[in-house]
Amino acid sequence: MRHDGTPAATCEGLVRIYWSPSGEVHALKGVDAVVPAGRLTAITGPSGSGKSSLLRILAAQDRPTAGRAEVAGHPLTGLSARRLRALRRRHIGYVFARPPQNLLPHLTGHEHLAMAARYRGVGRAEARREGAELLDLLGIAHRAEHLPGQLSGGEQQRLAFAQAVIGRPALVMADEPTSELDSATTADLLTAVSELTRTGTTVVMATHDPLAASAADQVIHLRSGAVSHEEVAGRRLAVIDGDGRVQLPEEALARFPARRVLIDVTGDGVVLREPS
Ligand SMILES: Nc1ncnc2c1ncn2[C@@H]1O[C@H](COP(=O)(O)OP(=O)(O)OP(=O)(O)O)[C@@H](O)[C@H]1O
Question: Which tens digits make up the pLDDT trace of 29-84?
Fold first, then answer.
């Protein structure tokens, strides 16, 4: 699959507030992000920082309280439930954390792929061809006739990825896909997912696992419902939000105990200093 430089997904000023009997929870507080096509993007951050909330909105499973999100150039906001469902079916694949959430115990690998292809509107011959190609790419071609109960946890997650990718949706979302796997199986699964991105698939995964994050082309790090920084090609980039706010890294924050700062804009940069 070739890409023309259009991002697989974008969001701007994304806000998600949950209302519960104990009060409001501001889970996302204005998230701006770009998911490049054909890459593996990891969303990381401490528990409660908003990873799943962001993932669910980009997967068109939930709606933001405010802000905009697009997948493959299609706005997700302002759509009727029917159109949102159609967009999800065509453009979004999803992998859950636990293998049994992804697979049905009475269907073989081939049958899972045939079902997913039908759901996505792929013809039978094309589904057979693409299914065989995906199982091969993910290293489970020899397990195609097995039931999930006969597969290891890692093999089950590979099958879950094949199922999410068949029909080539614009975006494959995975919520903690390695959380139930040991580190060797995690490394193997990540290699397989990288193979998928090399053939043009876009994968976004929420993860706590530093090993999984280190395999990503881009890491979006959330802190308290906002993007604190991104990592691209091994470089840590602070993110300036739409209102000009930057979250300082913890080690920089520690330099300003009074939480007040002097800002000098110089010829070649911007310097933050503690007021004397
Ligand atoms: N349906 C809901 N109702 C009320 N609060 C919610 C709901 N879903 C999430 N939250 C709250 O929103 C905040 C962000 O949750 P979210 O699940 O997005 O974080 P997370 O980074 O994925 O966390 P974890 O790593 O623990 O899964 C948390 O404070 C959580 O308790």
Answer: 999 999 999 999 999 999 999 999 999 999 999 999 999 999 988 999 888 899 99
Which residue from 155, 231, 161 is spatially nearest to 196, judged by alpha carbons? 161
231 and 237 Cβ atoms separated by less than 8 Å: yes
Max CA distance (Å), the chain: 73
Query: Is residue 53 in contact with ligand 1, taking CB distance under 6 Å?
Result: yes
- The Å distance, Cα 54 to ligand 1 centre, comes to 10
Which atom of ligand 1 is nearest to 28's Cα? Answer: 14
pTM (2 decimals)? 0.89
- 204 CB burial (10 A radius; 0-12, 13-18, 19+): buried
Burial bucket for residue 158 (CB in 10 Å: 0-12, 13-18, 19+): buried
Q: Which fold has domain 9-245?
A: Rossmann fold (3.40.50)
Nearest to 174 by CA among 234, 242, 228, 98: 98
pLDDT along the chain (276 residues), means of 10: 78 95 94 94 95 95 95 89 91 91 94 94 92 92 94 93 94 93 90 91 94 92 93 88 82 90 92 89
The CB-side HSE value for 130 (13 A sphere, CA atoms) comes to: 25
The residues pairing with 250 across neighbouring beta strands, listed in sequence order, are none
Answer yes or no: is the C-beta of 207 below 6 A from any ligand 1 atom.
Answer: no
